[in-house]
From TrEMBL:
The keyword Nucleotidyltransferase applies. Residues 175-282 form the PII-uridylyltransferase/Glutamine-synthetase adenylyltransferase domain. GO terms for molecular function: [protein-PII] uridylyltransferase activity; hydrolase activity. This is [protein-PII] uridylyltransferase. The keyword Hydrolase applies. It comes from the Bacteria. The lineage of its organism: Bacteria, Bacillati, Actinomycetota, Actinomycetes, Kitasatosporales. PANTHER family: BIFUNCTIONAL URIDYLYLTRANSFERASE/URIDYLYL-REMOVING ENZYME, BIFUNCTIONAL URIDYLYLTRANSFERASE_URIDYLYL-REMOVING ENZYME. Residues 61-122 form the Polymerase nucleotidyl transferase domain. InterPro entries: NT_sf, PII_UdlTrfase/GS_AdlTrfase, Polymerase_NTP_transf_dom, UTase/UR. Pfam families: GlnD_UR_UTase, NTP_transf_2. Keywords: Hydrolase, Magnesium, Multifunctional enzyme, Nucleotidyltransferase, Transferase.
Length: 350
């Protein structure tokens, strides 16, 4: 059965048709990874658009928006649907009725739903107060209704994020650090949390947010492949367990490996650890660059030049003979002579 046939069945048969088409898609052995996630997102888009159109009737000034992971089109078999019903505030009663027409069919199918109903002003206000909401809105994607309303919110949220980056990025870094403290390093765990552990999918999403701020960017080499690998493992985990879980437990690792066509659990963990190392390294480099940029912005170059009689001099702290720390990195001291000091590279590496 083709993807067009699956979508047509979903559209023709309502919620039960969507459920059957979804099940067939997840059971297809020919499609996995990004193609299956994209097909699942498209199938869900079509179904939700049908619910919106049937409930909206002649209602204007309202749109349905996918946010978070669903906004990115990263639907795993047991992923939540993150939805925002956006409206201009002109008819709150009709919008509430429309929300019921959309939310209840989702609940009836037993799908997890994270939903909200807001005006653009309310969405921006909530985003300003809740960093997680703001991160979700950075991935907002229009599904149905007033495209101009969605586009206006996307533009405003992105502008807010970039304007507030000097304040919000340290908050995001602290959030990542607290999560890493709780969940540990993914690459060293026997039963890692693919999403929450350091080097997991949350960190990969945080790197996207940093890049969207235009303040710094992550090293690109291998990052997309690492993210894809963790998403593929999560898909297989959902299918193997039938649950919305991100914890790769020992008793499920062989089954997940088989789902992915890998030899055994050891091979699976090696691939997971390698992906985590790539994301962790990109996070280290990115947050160091964010810190450097924010520190440089905090300094008043003209005042320092006036007081010091010249250009601002970067702060350096001695680490070892011929090696100093500058902006969070180990660099050679100005007086270092590598050609005369064969042990210098070893001291720098240490």
């Amino acid at each position: 059965m083709t993807s067009t046939d699956v979508r047509k069945d979903a559209e023709d048969s309502g919620p039960s048709g969507y459920a059957a088409a979804r099940l067939r898609l997840l059971q297809e052995g020919a499609r996995s990874g990004p193609p299956r996630r994209a097909a699942l997102a498209e199938l869900t888009d079509d179904w939700l658009t049908g619910l919106f159109d049937a409930g909206a009737d002649a209602l204007r000034g309202v749109s349905l928006v996918a946010v978070g992971g669903y906004g990115r089109g990263e639907l795993s078999p047991r992923s939540d649907l993150d939805l925002l019903l956006l409206h201009d505030g002109s008819d709150s009663k009709a919008v509430a009725a429309l929300a019921d027409r959309i939310w209840y069919p989702v609940w009836d199918l037993g799908l997890a739903l994270d939903h909200s109903v807001r005006t653009p002003a309310e969405a921006r206000k909530t985003a300003g107060e809740d960093l997680k909401v703001q991160l979700g809105l950075l991935d907002a994607r229009h599904l149905a209704g007033d495209l101009g309303l969605t586009a206006g919110l996307r533009t405003a949220v992105l502008a807010d994020w970039r304007n507030q980056a000097p304040k919000r990025l340290p908050d995001l870094q602290e959030l990542c650090a607290e999560r890493a403290e709780r969940q540990g390093e993914l690459q060293y765990l026997l039963e890692p949390d693919l999403k929450e552990a350091r080097g997991g999918l949350r960190d990969a999403t945080a790197l996207r947010a940093v890049a969207a701020s235009w303040l710094a960017d992550a090293p690109r080499e291998g990052l997309a492949d690492a993210r894809k690998r963790l998403l593929d493992v999560r898909d297989a985990l959902h299918l193997a367990t039938g649950r919305a879980t991100d914890r790769l437990s020992l008793q499920e690792q062989d089954q997940v490996a088989a789902e992915l066509g890998l030899l055994d659990a050891d091979t699976l963990l090696r691939e997971v650890y390698e992906a985590a190392r790539v994301i962790s390294y990109a996070s280290d480099v990115t947050w160091r660059e964010v810190g450097r940029v924010l520190r440089s912005r905090a300094v008043r170059p003209r005042l320092r030049a006036m007081l010091g009689g010249g250009k601002p001099v970067p702060e350096r702290s001695p680490l070892a003979e011929g090696v100093v720390e500058q902006d969070g990195e180990a660099v050679l001291a100005r007086a270092a002579r590598p050609e005369r000091d064969p042990v210098l590279p070893l001291r720098a590496a240490a």
